[in-house]
Amino acid sequence: MASTFKTFLNNDVAQTKTLLHEAIPITGTLVSGTYAGTYGSEGHIKNYSHAMFQSVYDYPHASSSANHIFDITFGYSSASQFQNATSSQNTEKMQIYNQMAQVLMGFKTDGNLRAFDEDGNLSGGNKIYDAYFINFSRLLVKDEIKKGSFSMTLLSDNAYEAAAGAIKIEDTNANNEYKVNSPAGEYGILYANALTSGRSFTTPDGLSNPPIGLIFYQAGVVVLPMADTTNYSITPDGPSNQIFTSNAEMNSTPGDEYSELITGSTIQLMADSLRHRIDNITFNNTTELNSSIYFCRANHNDFNYSSNPTYLTGSKIMVKEKLTDQPVSYITSIGLYSADNELLAVAKLSEPLKKTPSTELTLRVRLDY
Amino acid sequence: MAFLNNSGDIILDAVLTDTGRYRMAKGDGSFKIAKFALADDEIDYSLYQNANWTGVGADGAHASGSAYYDLNILKTPILEAFTNNTSLMKHKLISIPRTNILYLPTLKLNALAGARGVKGQGALLQQASGTFYVATDSTTEGTTKLGGTTALGNAKWMEGFSTPGSVIRVDQGLDTTEIPPSISIPGDLKETQYIVEMDNRLGFIRKPAASEAATPSFIDDDNIASYYFTAGSDTDYIGDVPFANSDQVYVAAKDVIAGPRGTSINFSLGASIQLQTSTFLFTQLGGTEVISGVSYYVLDTIVRVTAATLGRSMTIPVRFIKAV
Known about the structure:
The complex is a heterodimer of chains A (369) and B (324). Chain A has 369 residues and is mainly beta. Chain A contains 6 helices and 22 strands. In chain A, strands 2, 3, 4, 5, 8, 9, 10, 11, 12, 13, 14, 15, 16 and 22 form a 14-stranded antiparallel sheet that branches. Chain A has a two-stranded antiparallel ribbon with strand order 6-7. In chain A, a hairpin with a 2-residue loop joins strand 18 (312-313) and strand 19. The two termini of chain A are 36 Å apart. The model of chain A has no long low-confidence stretch (mean pLDDT 87). Chain B has a domain at 106-323. Chain B has helices spanning 18-26, 71-74, 138-141, 273-277, 280-285; strands at residues 9-13, 15-16, 35-39, 93-94, 106-109, 132-135, 158-159, 168-173, 193-199, 203-206, 218-219, 224-230, 238-240, 261-271, 287-291, 294-307, 313-323. Mean pLDDT of chain B is 86; it is low at 116-122. In chain B, strands 6, 7, 9, 11, 12, 15, 16 and 17 form an 8-stranded mixed sheet that branches. The interface between A and B is large, with 79 and 86 residues. Strand 20 of chain A pairs antiparallel with strand 3 (35-39) of chain B.
């Protein structure tokens, strides 16, 4: 009996899962220096009237070519020493913190909000009550940030314009030490390393690369505390696990120092200040690719003839001169069909593939979801 | 020791068609891949340079031998996949276990004036333009319009509103004079199922010379309705190609298949409610034509007939017509 379809058997379909990683480099010039405009209102920076966060694009955001890279915002807890009714955007900053904590850390058994924890050990240790939040776009993060791949270099020198005092913030050894006690998926601890002689970290427990923040891999959120989480304050020179010293100038206007930033500046100005200090960010994203592989088996006696109109002259087969010649056909397309003969997916070969009764082929067709 | 030849195992990335995405979005389990087919839409087998070759400067087989017969075919560039489910996989490869076949059946439209339908219906209708005319309302069929003019020849149009008196007929068989028509076509070359596809917005398939509409098997996301007809079950539509007379010989005035005959599919067309009652699609997709001084809206489309098991297909041009 002639046929044009071949039914898949149970062993003709296989499922696979592949993790794809892409390197995402975000240079400091892209974040803070590429596009013209007054600092804080450059073309690729989008500020909102609600002033709750600032968005960074890779191109002037009014253009359809622009891609959203990340958002920056800042928040503090009601338990923070900086919380004060007179502080700039006090309500909004608490709202941001509570929102991020609710999503990323969840609630305690007593129903109260759980604060961010410096080392991920929720039963004790230092808490993070105020922090920058860098929320990376889904476009970059895809399914998640690859553990152990995150790196961010900040310029922490006290002078605003000095390209010095570089510190590197990484999720070192996150592949083995990530935490799973968050309702928003897995997260790792960010550690700081001084890259230049301008900065050094000496913490009370003697760590030269102290924990300095958190990274939530599936959520694509980086949490960077402002204050020293050991002392819950911003100190001049340390002992410290804070990113900037209290004397660091965070604005071109003299007097806008780090210690004054939290209480005296809007979220937008704080975002501008952090952007100005970002030298570079890199990470690898992860895409979880689920595939079905269909093994299209063309046995020796399958698919040797064609219904192509050029295959016949009258009714005579063009590629055969006499009865005993082998039929020949050339495959260019593979169609995957439903039981009711609807074409659901199609794959194309790069060049015609010869099929004769003396050949058998297995064409593996992969359909990704 | 040489490397193993791994060319027999190829990995290809597939793309979902619009219908595939549509079914997946429905989420009702209708997206289930059950079978596959192979096709050679881009291949021109007339480039196969064996002794049958009739190309430019044709002098038979390639001088360098049979290894060079398909040199030009293998150089054929292949197009990327379209995602429209009706735009590709037009010419499927066929599985027939035996290899001693020199002739394959073809499909031919039998529009000869002398031919009679399998079921005894009237002669088929076709214009010189090669298009079937289908009237879409009673006014158009009336005596003041198409019914009263001889400009289209004697009744060379089909009633799409009232009960049609004629059929579209497609014959299947071996169109060769090297095998007499009295020889029975082999069972594995005799088509037993046909798929008829047409734009469901414009019209529908009806029983031959009857008003009863056929039920489409499914209508895809592009409004293409597919009708499946099976020999033995749909005897109103499918039957053996009849002989013009009892001599069982080929009669050129009535037969389009010169050799052994297979089956014949017959059907009539009806105009959709929208074409019957509105000129919207005519003005949007069609134009106007003047016949014997009378203006008509016209809308051209195609009806595609596919032999389901042997894969061959043909498109039949149809022109829906409506008095202005």
